[in-house]
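Model: You mentioned two targets. I'll fold them one after the other.
Researcher: Yes, keep them separate.
Model: Target one:
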Amino acid sequence: MPLSPEQLAEIEALRASPQPTLRAVAPGMEKHLYTAQEVLDHGFVRVVDYMGDDAAICQAARVSYGKGTKSVQNDKGLIRYLMRHWHSTPFEMCEVKLHVKLPVFVARQWIRHRTANVNEYSARYSILDREFYIPAPEHLAAQSVINNQGRGETLTGDEAARVLEILKSDANRAYDNYEAMMSDEGQQGLARELARMNLPSNIYTQWYWKVDLHNLFHFLRLRADSHAQYEIRVYADAIAKVVADWVPAAFGAFEDYRMGGANLSAQALDVIRRRLKGEEVTQENSGMAAREWREFVDMIEG
């Protein structure tokens, strides 16, 4: 179960007792407050609190630039200008606090994004639940032969069944020993802070994660990308849907300029200009290394 009965009761109580406020609210985000979006087999993402909206981004920009923004006809145009020119501080005026339940190995990848505030469930004080991430068969894949950090072909048949059985049995055996080490029936029992070290990295943890919109966009640019690991990408995809409702103008600009756009090196830009003039440009006369050339060709030719 992604949410415990206690968490469900807390959410229902909060949603049943709305409070009046004078602060600006984003209607698209209000519908997400406290509602858990299920992710993977036992995980979830839910919005706990937020601050700001599209208007807050524009408000901050106009305070900063004054008359310099008077030529922008509307908020959407201003936001697109800010995104296009890599402005950051106006987007930092919006913040969101998320409650996330996720496998430990995903959390260790996620925590690399250091520009956020995090408070994680402590296995020093509490006992972790017997909940493990077990991939669906379609997400079991062999090691890629061309990418050292990626997946290759999907496992099938007996091989997939063998791997799934190992994952399940190892996780449950480790948890059995975790419980046994802490047992106080006729023995002292090992401290929780030591017993936890025997748990597998596919066990679920939880945390509160608070981040501003600028740094959240950076997270989404990397983790909602098709090349990101599936298990973190599905969390990023769930968060992206929330952000699209929260700040639709900013998210639209983000999709255009960051997710759907591309950054070109001086060499790549030179190649495009030469091609537009009718010159035949190859990797050999482009000045690019072979790998960079392949990436460039994939980008412009799809």
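Model: Target two:
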Amino acid sequence: MIVTVTPNPSLDRTYEVPSLERGGVIRATGERMDPGGKGVNVSRAVAAAGRRTVAVLPLGGAPGALVADLLHAQGIEVAPVPVAGATRSNIALAEADGVLTKINAPGPELSAKEQESLLETVRRRSHGADWIACCGSLPRGLAPSWYADLVARAHATGVRIALDTSGPALLEALREGPDVVKPNAEELAGAVGRPLVTVGDAVKAAEELRGLGARTVLASLGADGQLLVGGDGVWYGSARVDAVRSNVGAGDSSLSGFLIAGGTGPEALALAVAHGAAAVQLPGSVMPTPADLDPAAVSVTADVPVDRPLTEPVS
């Protein structure tokens, strides 16, 4: 069972459009409404794989009630923490060529009482969990050290924890030794404070995060695949993708695959890559089911192409 924590969830509306035209009237060719937030997406992907998951998240107002309804409809157990502010609503515009434009609202500010209630709900619902996955940005009111506190509390109860966040919140949490961190290339560059131009640069950055406390680093490099850097080795995974439809939630889907497979070693990386590749070929933030996966399209190797330039280098 995987518990997810999403401190700043959202109600996500995705519109498929031929192309963007600033100042014009754009007619959508398709639309979706989904519960959003990185941890929420992990829960959705875990549920789509037929596994049990509990989503812990602060919810408020009509958007929050709709998020809960949408999650329940997908067979996900919801552990809501009532908050005074309304849950944020986000908009994504997906163009026919795969380019995605996102408008993310800031979300409500959580009071000290609401913050503690969120931590206590995680503690109460994580008994017997295989993993806790803490994902996404922190809402207003939460200090960068909040994730560090959560990691420490999880380890005190003997539960493994995966963390997908960035900036000061990531750096603060590293000192508590999260079992897995899952940055993308931009977040990796930000954490180490230097550009990433090659796959080898990403490997070195991931090793630095391990030096700061992370036990394992699962790094998403977009079209250039994924890296797994841990105490038992370094692996590189990639997959053939026929057509990118939407990359919303693809990294979250990858994390779910990794945790479902046990969260360690090249086999877990292979399932992470398979989940991510399947997700980008689905509309909006639809999460892949086992039928959508193509294991034959996945390649995992310890022969990491360190000299390979990144398709989208991070400066």
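Researcher: Noted. Anything on target two?
Model: The chain has nine helices and 16 strands.
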